[in-house]
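Exercise 7.
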Amino acid sequence: MANQRRDPAKDYLFQAILTLETLDDCYNFFDDLCTIKELEEMAKRMCGAKMLDENKVYTEITEKTRLSTATISRINRCLKYGSDGYTEILRRLSERGIDRPELGDKSDN
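Solution. The predicted structure, written as tokens, is:
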């Protein structure tokens, strides 16, 4: 299945991502590549994946991240039946001692 998703343009994008070396490199590249909303959504999805991995319930994840239950459900399906992308990244972050940020009520922003 992975080969069916591949194409030269995506390969080029992922090769570019693999060249990033620092957080500043990531911020600069993704600020140029993505809209603010796209980047915020990806960040919230990572936090949602970690919260699901911590056995948090959908209502708490929605409250903390403002992700829809449909998005949380998709993340959950990926964690259980996906390509192990989230699972591998969460494992690597854990090995490096990188914790999920504490998220609060986003309505204040």
